[in-house]
Amino acid sequence: xxxxxxxxxxxxxxxxxxxxxxxxxxxxxxxxxxxxxxxxxxxxxxxxxxxxxxxxxxxxxxxxxxxxxxxxxxxxxxxxxxxxxxxxxxxxxxxxxxxxxxxxxxxxxxxxxxxxxxxxxxxxxxxxxxxxxxxxxxxxxxxxxxxxxxxxxxxxxxxxxxxxxxxxxxxxxxxxxxxxxxxxxxxxxxxxxxxxxxxxxxxxxxxxxxxxxxxxxxxxxxxxxxxxxxxxxxxxxxxxxxxxxxxxxxxxxxxxxxxxxxxxxxxxxxxxxxxxxxxxxxxxxx
Length: 286
Hints:
By secondary structure, this protein is mainly α. The chain has a single domain (about 65-285), classed as Orthogonal Bundle (MetI-like fold). The protein has 12 helices and no strands. Helix 5 (about 120-130) crosses helix 7, helix 7 crosses helix 9 (about 200-225) and helix 11 (about 245-255) runs antiparallel to helix 12.
């Protein structure tokens, strides 16, 4: 009986492994074909000579010695950093306020935030032209109130790009930060207040330090997503605010320099992986 039971259990374990493999292998093949192979091909293109097709490091030499690439990358990172800071200034109070609501209020607040994912980014981006354009709602109100005689240039500059990017990224920032704040034990705040701390002191000395890992993880996530923006800078920047994704579009579609576009994409991938590692470290700490 013992040998038969061992054999049956071994057969059952083998069948379970095959059933797991039947689910995992198709997904693994899908990931390799859709994601990994294009990345490998792009990486190989970055080491390919445009004329001869042979292997070369000249593309990376041109990338490192040409100022235009460095300027656009640093500009992209600076805009991404400012957008991340704005998301933190707006998203942290929103996430904290949501955690203080009753269960029904939290459901309503989260539902309102999630509703933004149902609207196309393209539609939301063009909506800012209606709001902030020269003949938009804001400029018409300012002129009717006598605060300005000529329209203020809100769009087709870095300000307009950052407004559109913050609008898109704020839900991505708030939701993980809210989840992190929900895991903080509220009894610690009650204990601090029972020991004589005011509500403001208990927030700054207890809640805020405990929420810092979640805040940092959300900021890194927003920064990573900001690096690859294309639609918002193209529309709200009006071609005056070039970022990395727009530069790659020019290299591919107008100048037909696929190898240099591959070099830029590899550089952007390395930066993204670096910050993704930081994000995972902060997420584990939160």
